[in-house]
Specification:
Layout (H helix, E strand, L loop, with lengths): L9 E3 L3 H4 L4 E5 L2 E10 L4 E2 L4 E2 L5 E3 L4 E2 L5 E2 L3 H24 L13 H16 L2 H14 L5 H12 L6 H5 L2 H6 L5 E7 L7 E2 L4 E3 L12 E5 L4 E7 L10 E4 L2 H14 L3 E4 L5 H14 L2
Parallel strand pairs: 9-14
Antiparallel strand pairs: 1-6, 2-3, 3-4, 3-5, 3-15, 7-8, 9-13, 10-15, 11-12, 12-13
Helix pairs in contact: 2-3, 4-5, 8-9
């Protein structure tokens, strides 16, 4: 969360509270710091040392609106909005972790309240749109149709139309993220559990399959979102899942785990993150996934 007295400059598009679920916490100088393993999709190499999660997935002043002279407009307003979402989502993920560790909860069909589901949907949707490349794409589209708009104005306009700022309620309802949230409503939730730390994630962690052509609500055919190194969230159109399979835990098979790893690799931009170094088998799976993307 940004500090009022010391504005945040390093603004993370994949939040640290999320990456912590795939990290190793080590005691450094009396403080617990979270470190993670990186695999580069450019070099197809495992980075040989752990990296601090604070040093990845961020850009300086990524969400800041600016005047023409470079001064900030409502500094950290968007960052604060995301911080509030992350705080609530962290609470929900923490509850899921706790419940997954108790046998009596594994057969329960009330894992998530409707409020919990809402926070997860908001968080997931924001992750799909808050990254630097999406912001740049928005600027490019705007400037293609309006060549007279300079980079500063194009960036401000893109941020205002992309991200909820919490300033004007009516405006926020029509931002891209708010509108896209509707696409994930009415989905069936399942939480997959692995016995070991084999779930991986990436710098683009939400895996989304396009809606079925006959889907009248424009909901995705499926969404897979790694929650931690042992937990993964599945979303399916509710009519495609029997009542007994909604809002519940499921044990992940080896095939499902392999499929998650494969699709994380397909969806990632440049980096894959994991609690442990990728095994030779996992690296082979990643290479196969990336190779098929180019064929």
């Amino acid at each position: 969360m940004p500090n009022v007295n010391k504005p945040t400059k390093d603004e993370h598009f994949v939040p640290r509270m999320y990456l912590k679920g795939f990290s190793n916490v080590q005691n450094k100088s009396g403080k617990g710091k979270a470190f993670i393993w990186e695999f580069s999709l450019k070099s197809m190499q495992q980075i040989p040392t752990l990296v601090n999660i604070e040093s990845i997935c961020y850009e300086k002043n990524l969400y800041e609106l600016k005047n023409e002279d470079g001064s900030f407009i409502a500094q950290n307003r968007i960052e604060n909005t995301f911080g509030k979402i992350e705080e609530q989502t962290s609470r929900v993920i923490g509850q899921i972790i706790t419940k997954s560790q108790f046998k009596q909860c594994l057969n329960c069909q009330t894992i998530l309240s409707e409020e919990d589901k809402s926070y997860l949907i908001i968080f997931i949707t924001a992750l799909m749109y808050r990254d630097p490349q999406t912001i740049k794409n928005g600027m490019s589209i705007l400037q293609t149709s309006n060549p007279e708009i300079d980079d500063c104005k194009a960036r401000n306009h893109t941020l205002l139309n992309l991200l909820p700022m919490g300033i004007d309620t009516e405006w926020d309802k029509n931002t891209i993220i708010r509108t896209a949230i509707k696409d994930l409503c009415g989905m069936a939730f399942q939480i997959g559990i692995a016995d070991d730390d084999v779930i991986i994630t990436s710098d683009r962690p939400v895996i989304k399959w396009s809606p079925d052509k006959n889907e009248i609500y424009n909901r995705p055919e499926a969404v897979v979102f790694p929650l931690t190194s042992r937990l993964v969230l599945y979303l399916f159109p509710i009519e495609k899942v029997k009542p007994i399979g909604r809002n519940c835990f499921i044990r992940l098979s080896e095939e499902q785990i392999n499929d998650i790893q494969y699709n994380v690799a397909v969806n990632a931009r440049e980096w894959i993150y994991s609690r442990n170094p990728l095994t030779e088998e996992q690296i082979k799976r990643v290479k196969e996934a990336r190779k098929r993307m180019t064929t």
